[in-house]
Request: fold
Amino acid sequence: MDFKELIKVRQSNRAYQDRAVEKEKIEQCLEAGRLSPSANNAQGWTFVTVDDVELKNRVAESAYRMGGAFVKQAPVIIVLVAEKPLFMSKFGSALRKIDFSSLDIGIAAAHICLQAADLGLGTCMLESFDEKSIKTLLNIPDNRRVALLITLGYSADIQREKKRKKLDEVVRWNKY
Ligand SMILES: Cc1cc2nc3c(=O)[nH]c(=O)nc-3n(C[C@H](O)[C@H](O)[C@H](O)COP(=O)(O)O)c2cc1C
Reply:
């Protein structure tokens, strides 16, 4: 797909068809995440990919309770776990008071979602979930953080126009 078109097509899909996603397509999405850039090339993420129906539904419930009724419809949930940061990233984050780990995970999530859209799949990033219950369900160690969930599946949502600020509201040329 043309990149401009891809950016338009990618949206948060909050309704999914009752249709499994081919494993090769899931793997392509994960590969896009793997290839994404990160501060100090830290790659401080693990993509816990949940496609076992029963387990996936239990993970979905932990988001459902926080308002994501559609999450259960998605056949796959990718759980983006923030690994312990490298010393350099930790040092850099402390120095700049910016959490590079979250930036990195956001970029990886964007890669995953754009790759999915290119494969004709829908996604939705989710920050509302019960982290504790997801950690228990998926054996994620206590000292890791669950940064984000991504639902993945064939969309049953309508394609919406993007609601965004105008370009001149978010861009300044040469000075703030
Ligand atoms: C970091 C992040 C967290 C998000 N968390 C949620 C969420 O918990 N539930 C939800 O329905 N959408 C969530 N979204 C989707 C946003 O609401 C959505 O991206 C935004 O409204 C723009 O719409 P679009 O993705 O359809 O273009 C999240 C998006 C991002 C980037």
The pocket of flavin mononucleotide is lined by residues 11-12, 14, 68, 124-128, 148, 162 (CB under 6 Å). The mean pLDDT is 94. The two ends are 34 Å apart (CA to CA). The CA atoms of residues 33 and 108 lie 5 Å apart.
